[in-house]
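To: structure desk
From: M.T.
Subject: fold request, one chain
Message: Could you run this one when you get a chance? Sequence is below, nothing fancy, just the single chain.
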Amino acid sequence: MSGEFRVRELVLGIEGLALLRNAVDGDEAFLRERVEDIRRFVSAEYGEEKLPDGGATVSELDAARGYEAWSAVYDSLPSSYIEVEEPVVGRILDGLAPGVALDAACGTGRQTRALVGRGHRVIGVDQSPHMLEKAGERSPQADLRIGHLERLPLDDDSVDLAVCSLAMTHLPDVTPAVAELARVVRPGGRIMVTDMHPFVIALQGQCLFVSGAEELAFVRNHVHLLSHYLEAFAAAGLRVRACHEPLFNGRLAPGGYEEAIGDAARAAWDGLPIVVVWDVEVPAVPAVPAVPSQDGGV
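Reply: Done. Structure tokens follow.
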């Protein structure tokens, strides 16, 4: 694919965001340091050897190639997104009775393991055979199937619970995938969707990972506003029980471009939500459309 981004420009953007967010109340020494960093990064004084991957451009991989490359390292990568997401999801799961559960876009089976551990009979679906292989090694009792979020290989009303974690960010539109989750969950069942918060994607864009011989790559993320999700849930006849927005916890990916400018990166993201967790349900009784009165009211 033709998409790419440039590490130097990304680093400058993080420095600028930290400066912007602290311009009013920030410590004077911190602000001077940000300005000096920006000056060094745009000049030859700093040197590209100080940047991750030498400041080179980073290529975009499509989902199939990206997940294949990502599968080899996915479980070994510390992630602030997962660290703030899991406690919220875990608290919701702890309140649900065991049943038949779907882990949609299961990847290497992180949520599959959590569901199996809580007594659910789990069906895991992912488009990547490499990810499913990893999931099968960790949860051999799970029923793992090749499939896409927009075309789940399950019958209507066949599961009690569906979980989809940090995957819809790769879809241009969440509406078809939300409709599919609603289709396969029985009336009275629950759906949990977690996604990268639109703040993060709008400001930062993409998440890097190591592909091949220590080269950096990314699979494209898309901005999904909370209103987009609300519209998709309404169109699928779902009812929102809760929306959680856990905040950045200070964790930076080791060895990445943000760790090289840790003070700026932490200041840029401090206090911002980085994940959204939706807890929705399929109504036990379908909603009856309102009948307009003869005078045009409802």
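Reply (cont.): Residues 243 and 278 are 5 Å apart (CA to CA). Let me know if you need anything else for the meeting.
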